[in-house]
Design a protein that fits this description.
The structure is a single chain. The protein is of the alpha/beta class and 416 residues long. Helix content is 52%, strand content 12%. An eight-stranded mixed beta sheet has the order 3-2-1-4-7-6-8-5, sandwiched between helices. Helix 1 packs parallel to helix 13, helix 6 crosses helix 13 and helix 8 runs parallel beside helix 9. It comes from Megasphaera hominis.
């Protein structure tokens, strides 16, 4: 080794090459979707669980929407956990015909605690269901959502994440770039992993969990990203998180920059916390059992760590161009021609995805500022890592009260 930093920087460059190839190859598998040849008849019963904290402005639209899904009405019920509400959320939910459970706990605050409490309540009641489907109060749901989830359950899948679309992709540039990020992740990450048999992760809403899984393993996930925590908890037990590309929900994206930063910081805090706790366990059990999905789960959890490492590397690389500190081996690991292909691909693949889903015309304009949004993840991740052990819940205010018919106009081709 020629330079004193080689002992650190050479392994970092190997890691960067691995992740770069991994992301590129994985994204390629997300460019196509296998169509299910058989749509199974309704077989499974569902409890639709809505988590609501002071959501009186939007939750009524979701309940009305859920009551009109293309699924036998006697095979699903709608429940709301009104968690520490100080407004008229419980009254609104009752008026719209949902079963309401009121939870008041000022010490254990957050969606994870609310779900833990709600699942315990529902597992103890007389009427039982085959699966839970969980939504946030601001969501709207595609009419075929339950039929699609029924289809996946009939194939033996037990933990399933639905397609997270946007109901306000043209409201502001933040909502627009947030929407683009979700569309790309849906295809280049979730669908891609499902296509090649890997396990993805739950997204907090639009998720379906077989009752037997909750009964067997419990929920018990109370960190700031309870969805990721549960995904990794069951992955350690060999349960794969699957992807339902045609089970669509419309989610309200943050409108303002600081609002989005607070939300993303919470996600970064939770993911860093989960990474610390689950990466060693997944590594040990994955190696011991030879389970590729568990080892792949490490990559899922390590994304914020990889972004921070890459940022530090980029800073040192700039200095290295003036003052040699380490040996650059990137072109020795991968030929320049391959780097060119990867560079072109990182721009071409997202465009192909957006063309496939026929996004609103205004979204193409938001691509101009999309890099700003993506680079803003860097300080967000560092702050999230710093506060990874802080469990203070930050509630996102939802105000976009629209009907399903309005939101459905955004993505007509997804109904196919």
């Amino acid at each position: 080794m020629e330079h004193f930093l080689d002992v650190i920087m050479i392994p970092i460059q190997v890691i960067i090459v691995f992740y770069t190839l991994y992301y590129f190859i994985l994204a390629c598998f997300g460019l196509m979707k296998k169509r299910d040849r058989v749509m199974r008849p309704p077989k499974h019963t569902f409890a639709a669980v809505i988590c609501a904290h002071n959501e009186e402005k939007v939750v009524g639209n979701l309940i009305d929407n859920l009551k009109n899904l293309n699924y036998p009405r006697d095979m699903y019920d709608i429940y709301v956990v009104a968690d520490n509400c100080t407004d008229h959320t419980p009254d609104v939910c009752k008026a719209h015909g949902a079963y309401v459970r009121i939870r008041t706990n000022k010490e254990q605050v957050g969606k994870g605690y609310a779900l833990d409490w709600m699942f315990a309540q529902m597992l103890a009641q007389e009427k039982q269901y085959d699966a839970f489907v969980v939504f946030d109060a601001d969501n709207l749901v595609h009419p075929e959502f339950l039929r699609e989830m029924n289809n996946h359950l009939c194939k033996g899948e037990k933990v399933i994440q639905g397609y997270m679309d946007s109901k306000n992709p043209t409201d502001t540039w933040i909502a627009g770039t947030f929407s683009i990020a979700f569309w790309l992740i849906n295809h280049m990450w979730h669908l891609a992993k499902y296509n090649i048999g890997l396990s993805t992760a739950l997204g907090g809403t639009g998720m379906c969990i077989a009752t037997e899984i909750v009964r067997k393993y419990g929920w018990g996930c109370d960190c700031l990203t309870e969805d990721m925590e549960f995904s990794m908890k069951v992955l350690l037990e060999g349960v794969r998180t699957c992807w339902a590309h045609d089970a669509i929900i419309y989610d309200e994206k943050a409108l303002g920059f600081m609002q989005s930063c607070r939300q993303r910081k919470r996600w970064a805090q939770g993911q860093c916390d989960c990474g610390e706790r689950f990466i060693p366990k997944l590594f040990v059990r994955g190696i011991k059992t030879g389970n590729i999905r568990m080892l792949d789960g490490i990559i899922t959890l390590s994304q914020p760590f990889f972004m921070m490492m890459s940022t530090i590397y980029a800073g040192i690389a700039m200095i290295n161009s003036y003052i040699p500190l380490y040996t650059n081996i990137l072109n020795q690991l991968i030929p320049v021609q391959i780097w060119t292909v990867l560079g072109v691909g990182q721009y071409l693949i997202p465009i192909i995805v957006l063309l496939q889903i026929k996004v609103p015309m205004k979204s193409w304009l938001y691509l101009i500022v999309y890099p700003i949004f993506m680079y803003s993840w860097i300080p967000v991740n560092f702050l999230g890592f710093k506060d990874r052990h802080k469990m203070e819940w930050s509630h996102t205010l939802h105000t976009r009260a629209v009907s399903y018919d309005t939101a459905a106009l955004l993505r007509k081709e997804n109904k196919k």
